[in-house]
């Protein structure tokens, strides 16, 4: 062990393990170290090697105890004097979160691996490079306070028993339905965001109104229209002149029947010339011949068409 430091200065890298002693030979020293580190709210920085062939690592031993009352005043200089101190707000929140959690909490040191200097990333330079030319606008104190109130209203104590896996609940419910025929387990997703839970959304209703007011989110910014060619709306009137309608006899006389597509000619033949649908297997010229023969046999028959060209 090399040094002691406040655990608020420990940078967490990866997961952690809990160390606790089983046996009575070294439990006295271990318990004394745990009590003093917990009272001072300090972590131990040391070298750790779990196996003989494993690489040596720098780790932090962060103490944890279920009793949150014996926390030494950090301003106190006397190591021998230790009084019952009132835990601060953070300790109170931890105490609430530890209610009914004795099954998964154990007293001891949490072993947390620390990164080496070359493994640390300085993200501040990256953020500075991507800043806009105008810079970040300064926030007013009222805006900061409004966001603080919003976050505080949504901050709750954490306990694994408070939040269950919705996938496991669904599987258990399916087993109950299969075994008993009744849905005994209520499938409730406790991991939903706050705005999908009516009670939580109602809890921050006033804070949301303050945020909208302080940040001016009700003002509709006029969006600048993009330069370039605009698309004509579907319902907009077409300024171009419409194509001239012609009768089918005029199209035949002007030799414009070939301007129509085969499907259009087939529809004309079926609808107006009473031709069978089997005409679809014929060629385009064959369909035109059928229409011309029908017009020749029925001089009074005609209909309007719109040639493409």
Automatic annotation (TrEMBL):
The answer to whether the entry has keyword Transmembrane is yes
**What GO cellular-component annotations does this UniProt entry give?**
Ku70:Ku80 complex
Classification via InterPro entries: DNA_bd_Ku70/Ku80, Ku_C, SPOC-like_C_dom_sf
Q: Domain Ku spans what residues?
A: 28-131
Superkingdom is Eukaryota
Q: GO molecular function: any one?
A: DNA helicase activity
User: What are the UniProt keywords, alphabetically?
Assistant: DNA-binding, Membrane, Transmembrane, Transmembrane helix
Q: Which Pfam families does the UniProt record give?
A: Ku (PF02735), Ku_C (PF03730)
Compositionally skewed regions (Basic and acidic residues) per UniProt: 217-227
Occurrences of domain Ku70/Ku80 C-terminal arm (ranges): 157-246
Transmembrane segments in this chain: where? 6-26
Record GO biological process: double-strand break repair via nonhomologous end joining; telomere maintenance
Give the start-end ranges of region Disordered: 217-245
Q: What is this protein called?
A: ATP-dependent DNA helicase 2 subunit 1
> Organism source for this protein?
Caenorhabditis japonica
Starting at the broadest rank, the lineage of the source organism is: Eukaryota, Metazoa, Ecdysozoa, Nematoda, Chromadorea
